[in-house]
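Risk register update: the risk of archive-format incompatibility is retired. Evidence:
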Amino acid sequence: MWLITWIMVGLIAGWAAGKIMKGSGYGPLMDILLGMVGAVVGGWIFNMLGIYPSGGLIASIVVAIVGAVLIISISRLIKGA
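Archived output:
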């Protein structure tokens, strides 16, 4: 069940980050992967800042969106777009 939840968080975070960053996007599969990576990166960043969001699924989605936006920003810098 946790895998399905993780995929859903990744999907929502990837989609939202794509909308926030306004671009052509990377496609649904890449959005999910970016959302999942964003969840890990966002969790790490929030942890390093001493912020421990509690609130279940909503907090996880917000953290994942922050991380996914950061990942997309970095990938666009590297790509030069």
